[in-house]
Write a structure and sequence with these properties.
By secondary structure, the protein is an alpha+beta fold. The chain is built from eight helices and ten strands. The longest helix is centred in the C-terminal third of the chain and has 38 residues, at 225-262. The two termini are 41 Å apart.
Length: 263
């Protein structure tokens, strides 16, 4: 056990632990997205898990949640991964390049990838057609996706560009650049950029058009996988950089107190 603890305190050991933590986080997010897309299965109509009831000429049957749909396990994997990531940074007291800056650089860089995923989902009710809009479509502006929703072309309306997406792109670029900049000031830059990015995600989603009504039916707006990944990635960077900045601040105060006491 002591040998394992000693190995994890090295740069290589801390990096292996951080890499495993990132894999666990990525696996949890991927599993969560997979579970959300699982089809419903037939269940007895007496069960509480019934989501849809179909009445047909041959009888009545019900569909409910898939038994593999266990989002709590995906959340647990992500939380364990975040905890291991923080432990890996604390084990390597020097907070080296391979653990700290690589991790926070990857989390900021993942924002650019997540913007290519569905950011918002438009739908005409739970059983109606739906259409997705990515973050990059919101960046340059988009026409309401009338074709996927089976709407009349006369109903098309242009929205955007969304300025909050521009902020997210800037956050990703600045965070990546700061990861290559040695010194404690780069930690502060990434800490601030992560906080701004999380606020920008919320603002971008709130700026999506709502309350649009077509033929008496309101167009529903739901969040996609993109905002979840962005908020999670920047939240990880916020935790990792936050504890590094806090530890440095506490270290300076402790050193000042010791110096004052000895003087």
């Amino acid at each position: 056990m002591n040998h394992l603890a000693s190995a994890l305190r090295t740069s290589r050991g801390a990096f292996v632990l951080a890499f495993g933590a990132l894999l666990m986080i990525a696996g949890g997010v991927t599993a969560g997205g997979w579970m959300l897309n699982l089809p419903d299965v037939r269940v007895p109509c007496s069960e509480s898990a019934v989501r849809v009831t179909y009445i047909t000429p041959t009888g009545t049957y019900c569909e409910g949640s898939n038994p593999f749909e266990q989002p709590s396990l995906a959340v647990l994997a992500v939380l364990i991964g975040i905890a291991l990531l923080i432990v890996s940074c604390r084990l390597e007291r020097r907070v080296g390049w391979m653990v700290h800056r690589l991790t926070t650089g990857l989390t900021h860089g993942s924002v650019l990838f997540a913007l290519s995923l569905p950011f918002v989902v438009f739908s005409l009710g739970s059983c109606g057609p739906s259409a997705v809009v990515s973050g990059y479509q919101m960046l340059k502006g988009f026409d309401l996706p009338v074709s996927d929703l089976n709407l009349s072309p006369n109903f098309a309306q242009h929205f955007g560009p969304n300025p909050a997406i521009i902020v997210l792109v800037a956050v990703a670029v600045i965070g990546l650049a700061a990861s290559m900049w040695p010194g404690w000031k780069s930690d502060v830059v990434r800490l601030v950029s992560a906080g701004i990015g999380i606020a920008a995600v919320s603002a971008a989603f709130l700026m999506v058009p709502r309350g649009v009504v077509f033929n008496g039916t309101e167009l529903y707006v739901d969040g996609g996988l993109g905002p979840t990944i962005i908020a999670l990635a920047l939240g990880i960077s916020l935790c990792v950089d936050g504890q590094a900045v806090a530890r440095r601040h506490l270290g300076k105060r402790t050193a000042a107190a010791i110096s004052l006491h000895t003087g």
